[in-house]
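Regression test case RT-17, inverse folding.

Input:
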């Protein structure tokens, strides 16, 4: 724990090596990474390497009770994994409780030695981690919410590399400074590590060229605003072409249907070398909190690079066609304020965490931990994006969906209007997937697939399902193990918007889950 002062108040936070955000992990494609985690805090801890494929090494993936039991206070665990065929920006974060609020950092995977970027080499690379800050203890915030059955308090500020910048509750708060030299091009590796907020990122007077998302190269395109959902990363080229001056850097929330007011903008400064400190900063107005058209056009512009070196291997023949509804519901709770609690679901299943990890139960054939009957379609049909159904209750279960090794999956994620339509950044562990289509309203299984992009759809690990709409993704189940899938808004994960895929071992010599390391924590 480390005492940290922000927004004019001090609290102890959980960190990696005393830093917020944590230290950047720098490696190269195909490197093997060893991270020894020693738990010096009073909480159980796990760390997830978000977007690292973990081919056959699910034991190092990190989600508590899915692939490992937590590292208890005083214990140690060595995460050991290889960055096979991956390069780009990812992030690591705690994957238990709400510890990732402060326990997170960047993963920078450089291309193999001698392999250039598919764009001109930038003068310098800069990691930019966006996050959220609560004045109160974050675990207390979610515990209170769980007891009342209501939504947790929203954060008090957003941060850019740990700095909120001046806000009305603390005008003396400092902001992040990005020093640049005139004429040079920078690559910003921007990460959204926030718990519960999609964030816009902007710099006054400057444009960006998007070149990569979620550690997959994209066709370059120009924009003055980017939208990054929690768990997503975006690499931007920024040319410092204004010569001199100071320009505002801004990170502000996007909420399509704002349920709570959380519209505080984190601000920093892009500072040209040679510019006097007292020169006024050119400001930028952040997009409206509900600037949905802007988000839609940004999302639509994303395409995978699909070059000879980096082809988009979109599965064309589909073995498993799945349709999952996602949203919020209500379950009875005698001790809660309204006699019920807010929950969340996939196909009406609110996921219950097991008491040992599903991967261990699968590997050692331990019965009674999970069932493999996760529904491939919603249990009841209704107009998902119309008026909400009369029954908004969900069922509970620790259910997984089973996939044969190397089978192909098409998964349509349909947002629902149950309680409130909301956009959900859904993250899949263990795979990258292709976003082949998306739209508003209800998915139409006859018409919509005709419009799918099977040529150069963007490849990523976290995708925002639009508010009152749907997204279709495809992936190949070429990674045996147990792979969590959940909404990356931490409040929705807590409420149960999560499930797991179980990919069976293949028959080949390199097609099964490797044995667990001897220091795998016990529950
Ligand atoms: Cu970045 Cu399962 O999370």
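Golden output:
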């Amino acid at each position: 724990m480390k005492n940290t002062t922000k927004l004019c108040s001090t609290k102890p936070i959980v960190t990696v090596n005393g830093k917020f955000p944590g230290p950047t992990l720098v490696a190269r494609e195909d490197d093997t990474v060893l991270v020894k985690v020693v738990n010096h805090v009073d909480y159980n801890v796990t760390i997830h390497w978000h977007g690292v494929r973990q081919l056959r090494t699910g034991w190092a993936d990190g989600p508590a009770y899915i692939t490992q039991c937590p590292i208890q206070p005083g214990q140690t665990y060595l995460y050991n994994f290889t960055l096979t065929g991956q390069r780009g920006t990812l992030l690591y974060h705690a994957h238990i409780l709400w510890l990732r609020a402060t326990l997170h950092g960047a993963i920078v995977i450089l291309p193999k030695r001698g392999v250039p970027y598919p764009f001109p080499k930038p003068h310098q690379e800069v990691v930019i981690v966006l996050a959220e800050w609560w004045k109160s203890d974050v675990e207390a915030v979610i515990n209170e919410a769980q007891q009342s059955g209501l939504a947790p308090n929203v954060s008090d500020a957003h941060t850019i590399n740990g700095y909120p910048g001046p806000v009305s509750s603390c005008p003396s708060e400092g902001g992040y400074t990005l020093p640049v030299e005139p004429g040079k091009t920078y690559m910003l590796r921007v990460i959204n590590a926030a718990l519960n907020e999609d964030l816009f990122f902007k710099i006054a007077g400057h444009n960006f060229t998007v070149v990569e998302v979620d550690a997959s190269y994209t066709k370059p395109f120009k924009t003055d605003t980017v939208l990054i959902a929690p768990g997503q990363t975006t690499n931007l080229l920024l040319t410092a072409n204004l010569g001199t001056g100071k320009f505002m850097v801004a990170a502000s929330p996007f909420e399509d249907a704002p349920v709570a007011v959380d519209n505080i903008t984190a601000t920093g400064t892009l500072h040209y070398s040679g510019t006097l400190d007292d020169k006024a900063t050119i400001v930028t107005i952040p997009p409206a909190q509900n600037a949905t058209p802007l988000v839609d056009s940004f999302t639509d512009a994303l395409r995978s690079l699909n070059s000879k070196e980096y082809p988009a291997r979109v599965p064309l023949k589909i073995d498993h066609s799945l349709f999952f509804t996602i949203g919020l519901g209500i379950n009875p709770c005698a001790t809660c304020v309204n006699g019920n609690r807010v929950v969340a679901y996939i196909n009406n299943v609110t996921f219950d965490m097991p008491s040992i990890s599903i991967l261990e139960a699968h590997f050692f054939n331990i019965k009674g931990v999970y069932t493999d009957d996760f529904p491939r379609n919603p249990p009841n049909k209704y107009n998902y994006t119309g008026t909400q159904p009369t029954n908004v209750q969900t069922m509970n279960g620790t259910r997984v969906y089973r996939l044969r090794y190397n089978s192909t999956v098409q998964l349509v994620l349909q947002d629902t209007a149950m309680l409130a339509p909301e956009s959900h950044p859904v993250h899949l562990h263990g795979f990258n997937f292709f976003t082949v289509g998306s739209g508003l309203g209800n998915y139409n299984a006859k018409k919509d697939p005709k419009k799918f992009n099977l040529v150069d759809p963007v490849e990523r690990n976290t995708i925002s399902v639009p508010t009152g709409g749907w997204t279709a993704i495809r992936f190949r189940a070429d990674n045996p193990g147990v792979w969590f899938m959940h909404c990356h808004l931490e409040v929705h994960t807590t409420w149960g918007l999560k499930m797991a895929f179980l990919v069976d071992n293949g028959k080949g010599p390199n097609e099964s889950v490797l044995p667990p390391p001897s220091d795998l924590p016990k529950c």
